[in-house]
Amino acid sequence: MGQKANPIGNRLGIIRGWDSNWYGSKKDYASKLIEDHKIRTYLSARINKGGIAKIVIERTLGKLIVTIHTSKPGIIIGKGGGEVDRIKEELKKLTGKDDVQINILEIRRPELDATIVGDTIARQIENRINFKRATKMAIASTLRMGAEGIKVKLSGRLGGSEIARSEEFKQGRTPLHTFRMDIDYANVFAQTVYGKIGIKVWICKGEVLGKRELNPNFVGGKNDMSDRRDGGREDRRPGGDRRDDRRGGGDRGGRDNRGGGRGRS
């Protein structure tokens, strides 16, 4: 089951919240769903270099709130906030609503977000960088930031070969069947001159043992794993310094003293 279901949909309501927060009756549910899809498609095309991880859509009475999670908020905000105002006006025309609000949330560690990692690999493949090199660099940077494991699968005419194939790169652990395991998943495409290449990314951020906030706009908490890793690294530094002191002050000091004693005698 873990291999066949989408890892995000599999964990909805358990450790992950919905990216669309609204209620729709039988009459208007379909139209709202289509509108959500239009908004996400439009924003992804409009801000294709903005490092968008996800777009959360909330609706209240007559109001539409769009929250963009991005690693490059400066590109979306623009000079003096002018770009956001333009996007807001465009969304008003697209949805036909007068009250549209846009929030922008910065992703502090983009290496731990599957969509951004996949998009980085896709952009490098489009720029004719070797797919193995691009994937291994992405895997190394993700693990460096504290992820427990990462899996990347690429399919298509890899390297421009005549016959399409699939290649998988794995490091660490990604147990897809464990519901309490926080696994981020993304499926992105690289449009090359010799065809489209599909890229799937799974990132394991560790187990969620307590109750988690299911609001998709919630930032921080358990899944911010690199904080713990940084703390561990700081704890290890004093140990390294002590070892250096022992190596420098203990043995050498003893040898110097013995040498000094022989010289005096």
What would the keywords be for this entry?
265 residues; alpha/beta; GMP Synthetase, Chain A, domain 3; Ribosomal protein S3 C-terminal domain; 2 domains; four-stranded antiparallel sheet; 7 helices; 26% strand; disordered C terminus
In short:
This protein is α/β, with parallel strands linked by helices and about 260 residues long. About 40% of the residues lie in helices and about 25% in strands.
Write the layout of secondary structure elements.
Blueprint (H helix, E strand, L loop, with lengths): L6 H4 L9 E2 L7 H18 L5 E9 L2 E8 L2 H5 L4 H14 L3 E8 L7 H13 L4 H14 L4 E8 L8 E8 L8 E12 L2 E13 L17 H40 L1
Parallel strand pairs: 1-2, 3-4
Antiparallel strand pairs: 2-3, 5-6, 5-8, 7-8
Helix pairs in contact: 2-4, 5-6
